[in-house]
Specification:
alpha+beta; 2 helices; 121 residues
Length: 121
């Protein structure tokens, strides 16, 4: 999302909104009466500042550069986790498979997709 603008940024924001809502609903089911939920998350403020970027070098830009180098070398495959997959579903060393999923439809009506990892079937 960092650096995205226009339709692309709106698609990321809508996906974030839906994932946030889903997370809250799931956590609400787990919370006992009188329990408390503490959430910590990255966010971008109205000045464009976020954790790792307060006006200087962006940690996300640095990570993006490094990840792209690793992807170009064939060491990793870039992607996200398929919607509906929770961190609790993922285990170190589990088998995953690469797929694609819709990200947004651009102004010309072309569906843009993103690589996504899913738990192997």
């Amino acid at each position: 999302m960092v650096g995205a603008t226009g339709v692309e940024r709106a698609a990321y924001e809508e996906t974030g909104r839906l994932e946030w809502e889903r997370l809250l609903v799931l956590r609400a089911r787990e919370l006992v009466p009188g329990g408390r939920l503490c959430l910590l998350s990255f966010g971008i403020d109205e000045d464009g500042h976020y954790v790792g970027h307060t006006g200087g070098v962006s940690v996300f830009d640095t990570l993006n550069t490094l990840w792209r180098q690793l992807a170009d070398e064939g060491v990793i495959v870039l992607g996200k986790v398929v919607e509906g997959t929770l961190a609790a579903d993922l285990k170190v060393g589990m088998e995953m498979e690469l797929t694609t999923m819709p990200l947004f439809v651009d102004d010309d009506g072309v569906e843009r997709v993103v690589h996504a990892w899913r738990i192997a079937s």
